[in-house]
Amino acid sequence: MSRPERPPVALRQRPSRSVAATICAVLLVALGVALVWSAVFRLTTGSWSQAFTEPFTWFSEQAWNSTAVWTLGALVAAAGLILLLAGVLPGRFHALSVRVPDAGGSSAHSVSGEPEAVMSRRAVAQLAAATCEHIDGVSSASATATDREVRVTASTALHDTRDLHRWVGEGVRSRLEASGLDPVPGVKVFIRSSD
Description:
Layout: H1 18-45, H2 50-61, H3 67-88, E1 95-98, E2 117-120, H4 121-133, E3 138-145, E4 149-156, H5 162-178, E5 186-193
Parallel strand pairs: 4-5
Antiparallel strand pairs: 1-2, 3-4
InterPro entries: DUF6286
Keywords: Membrane, Transmembrane, Transmembrane helix
Protein name: DUF6286 domain-containing protein
């Protein structure tokens, strides 16, 4: 009996969502510290601190139908929904596809489906900057990359930068093509002439 074929899984890295996780962690740590401080205050003095009891007193004085309770409930529900969606929905594709050369034969341990390879946008930007730095006339270079475009900024001591602009653009474009990116992102070149 043969196993049913599963569809291949695309290499799509989810974003780390580290900012949202850091904000949640800081808020939870602050809440934990406040609760521990209140508990220690209660153990040492025999009564709860006023800062701890005031929110409970305020809640006990509110009616279920009051505007403040509805507003607070809506804010908490919205924050929960945003956090739930941030955890469930996949993020944008943050890598560029690379053509994989045909291996010629398949191994007995190979994965079913077509092989897939990607380069991160940071790797593409570093490749473009490194390529640019090896071009005559460029003293330093930096680059940023998106899914569709690579922006290269090169510094030079030359005053006439027309030829250098063309050389940098062609050099970076040919290096990105040679790396196997599919599709090759567009290249925008900015030259800064230092006097």
